[in-house]
Amino acid sequence: MYARRLKGISLSRIRKMFEVEGEDIINLGIGEPDFEIPEDSKKAIIDALEEGFTHYTPNKGIPELREAIAKKLKSDNNIKRDPDDIIVTVGASEALYMCAQALIDKKDEVLIPDPGFLSYNACVKLAEGKPIPIPLEGKNFRTNPETIESLIGKNTKAIILNSPSNPTGAVTEKDDIKAIAELAEEKNLIIISDEVYEKIIYEKKHYSPGQFTENAIIINGFSKTYAMTGLRIGYITAPREVIEELLKIHQYNTACAPSISQAAALSALKGPQRVVDHMVAEFRRRRNLMHKRLNNMGIECNKPGGAFYMFPYVGDEAKFTEKALEEGVVVVPGSAFGYNGKDHVRFSYATSYDKIKEAMDRIENITDVIPI
Ligand code: PLP
User: Fold this and answer.
1) What average pLDDT does the chain have?
2) Separation of CA 234 and ligand 1 centre (Å)
3) pLDDT of 104-118, one tens digit each?
């Protein structure tokens, strides 16, 4: 009845966690900022509606937005791309899907971080390619260029990178990004770099492989930086010949990103930096609290350098998740993110400081299930 291709793909275990509700439940499973979109973007949406900006836009997105993105890429990432080499997408999700559909053939292998964002595995499989996990290493979940090199075979087509990372919060160091970019050039592989958490970063600096190689496809979005998850707006930039291929999917699939979301995104990019700074400062405060509390409980945990997740080792993840739920705290079991996520859980700190405090008090009651 349904396509056989979909057989190996499971429904997201994180989506399921989104839906857990209850008066006394504290949901640390949620992967979206609990902030409002910037005031200027709200106004831009209202203006867009009033001005009748509710029709199809050019396939690639409105020129003003693509110009603003090109400017951002140059100033923030030192990447020179023509606005014509940018497609505005329906979130980073569409960009990922499009990349897989346009670039992956049957038998192609794609190296994906493990643990990593669920869509990588699914998108590669939906394109009938083969995901090959890159085991992230050590307490800091390093993406090691040498490990990547050892996984490259004759069918390898692309490498997916994600820094700062979902679910670990790890930030890949400049030297590692550079080494992976050089490796991709040497082996003629494409890098697909998912940079949606670029701006949610604490002590470290973000580096994009696009600074070091032309072979990089950069995916970014407005969901996380500007709390616009529901507006479904992101973008992709790639070398010209790749853009032409991506358009074959984008044109026939979504036609264009929502017009009013494009207006909101343009306003966000032009808006004051303090809006993002304010959110990041609050995330840092919550991260520090959660990290301190977990460590005081004896839960082994890296201090994440970015995003809004913590990914501690808890031993039996099923037991931990169940016990946490009994205490009214929702967390996501680590194996949802791949084999190497097992024995961990993902805590999101995209919820208020006070709720995190309360959640940590409750977790303290179940530390007997964690092997020290
Ligand atoms: N990439 C990563 C690493 C994510 O964590 C998410 C959302 O959770 C996405 C992409 C999807 O972002 P968007 O809302 O722009 O589709």
Assistant:
1) 94
2) 9
3) 999 999 999 999 999
With the most atoms of ligand 1 within 8 angstroms of its CB, the residue from 15, 196, 348 to mutate is: 196
Long-range (24+ apart) CB contacts under 8 A made by 349-352 are: 349/28, 349/283, 349/286, 349/287, 349/290, 349/308, 349/309, 349/310, 350/30, 350/31, 350/32, 350/33, 350/34, 350/283, 350/308, 351/26, 351/27, 351/28, 351/30, 351/34, 352/34
**For residues 368 and 73, which has the higher predicted lDDT (pLDDT)?**
73
* DSSP string across 291-331: HHHHHHTT------SBTTEE--B-SSHHHHHHHHHHTTEE-
- Say if pTM beats, i.e. exceeds, 0.90: yes
Residue 111 DSSP SS3: strand
- Structural domains of the chain, ranges and CATH numbers in brackets: 4-37+274-367 (3.90.1150.10), 39-270 (3.40.640.10)
Q: Check if the beta carbon of residue 61 is closer than 8 Å to that of residue 87.
A: yes
* Binding-site residues, ligand 1, Cβ < 6 A: 31, 91-93, 117, 162, 166, 194, 196, 221, 223, 229, 234
Q: Rounded CA gap, 344 and 31, in Å?
A: 17
Give the tens place of pLDDT for each residue, 252-282: 999 999 999 999 999 999 999 999 999 999 9
- Retrieve residue 215's tokens: 């072979």
- SS3 state of residue 132: strand
ipTM over 0.85: yes
List the one residue out of 123, 94, 120, 95 whose CA is nearest residue 5.
123
